[in-house]
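Tokens in:
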């Protein structure tokens, strides 16, 4: 059977799409935009952001050459391609953020006085977030922390010393530094969010799962330095997403098995299937995949594709079909 290529376009933010200069429609992370590429050839795909953000996104144009239902050349960074057996090509576009700063005068974000003798610390914005350390002697040091929108300063008493804590809200994540009075950096961590909790620095990272699991690493001051004392995964900030539909439950099961959340994985199965041996089989069946997607044309059954990156840079999928009994999974088959 010969399949005609069908592009299914998504993007990391709400976007308006043109192909070869012709308006096609809108898409987002969850909303697919289908486009029939009937004769293959060369396609210039333009994406224009529709959402307003503090740090705006930029329009972008990509060139895609199709030979039949397969891309004929490597694709540039910022695009994810997944080819399905029925001729469908999932095309995910990541629009880049516009790196810029507000015009006008520099402005102060946070100030920390009297943390150390004759020392004044200022976190400010001037073509990026910067840290200014001033001594009464006239000695001045400036650190550039990256492009962002805010942050704060605070002191941290660790018993034998007083340390400066600098938190910067960058364009796509947060950064936290802990600094000694000699301006040496003891700790430099990044995450979806960072901070100080009960006197201990931590970083929180949202994992790429449907339920938005989080990984939290906590650091403690021991022996004159900071060391990680715990690394937990779970839900720490109330952002948990509960899967309700069959496709979401199937994806959640595969992701839980991949991440090692075995008790969660068991919760999606019927009671007679909730054993370590069954979860081991599920994990082996899922294999190593990067993300899961619902294929076009198989919506009448609960089928998901587990997508992994090949050496060519193009993603390929393994199709799994799930059968349910009263809202729980009792059978999984590879198609």
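Residues out:
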């Amino acid at each position: 059977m010969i399949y005609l290529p069908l592009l299914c376009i998504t993007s990391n933010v709400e976007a308006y799409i043109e192909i070869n200069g012709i308006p096609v429609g809108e898409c987002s992370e969850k909303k697919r935009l289908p486009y029939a590429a009937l004769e293959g050839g060369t396609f210039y795909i333009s994406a224009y952001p529709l959402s307003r953000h503090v740090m705006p996104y930029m329009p972008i144009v990509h060139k895609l050459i199709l030979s039949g239902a397969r891309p004929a050349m490597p694709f540039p960074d910022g695009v994810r391609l997944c080819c399905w057996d029925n001729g469908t090509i999932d095309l995910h576009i990541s629009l880049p953020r516009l790196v810029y700063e507000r015009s006008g005068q520099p402005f102060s974000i946070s100030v920390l006085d009297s943390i150390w003798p004759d020392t004044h610390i200022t976190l400010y914005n001037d073509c990026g977030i910067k840290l200014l350390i001033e001594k009464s002697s006239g000695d001045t040091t400036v650190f550039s922390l990256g492009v962002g929108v805010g942050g704060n300063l605070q002191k941290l008493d660790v018993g034998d010393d007083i340390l400066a804590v600098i938190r910067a809200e960058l364009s796509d994540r947060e950064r936290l530094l802990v600094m000694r009075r000699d301006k040496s950096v003891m700790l430099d961590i990044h995450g979806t969010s960072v901070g100080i909790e009960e006197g201990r620095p931590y970083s929180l990272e949202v994992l790429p799962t449907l339920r938005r699991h989080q990984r939290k690493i906590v650091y403690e001051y021991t022996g004159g330095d900071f060391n990680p004392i715990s690394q937990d995964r779970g839900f720490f900030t109330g952002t948990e997403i509960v899967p309700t539909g069959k496709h979401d439950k199937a994806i959640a099961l595969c992701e839980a098995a991949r991440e090692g959340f075995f008790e969660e994985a068991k919760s999606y199965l019927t009671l007679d299937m909730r054993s370590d041996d069954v979860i081991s089989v599920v994990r082996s069946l899922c294999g190593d995949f990067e993300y899961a997607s619902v294929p076009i044309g198989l919506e009448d059954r609960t089928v998901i594709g587990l997508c992994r990156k090949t050496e060519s840079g193009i993603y390929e999928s393994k199709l799994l079909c799930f059968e349910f009994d009263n809202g729980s999974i009792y059978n999984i088959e590879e198609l």
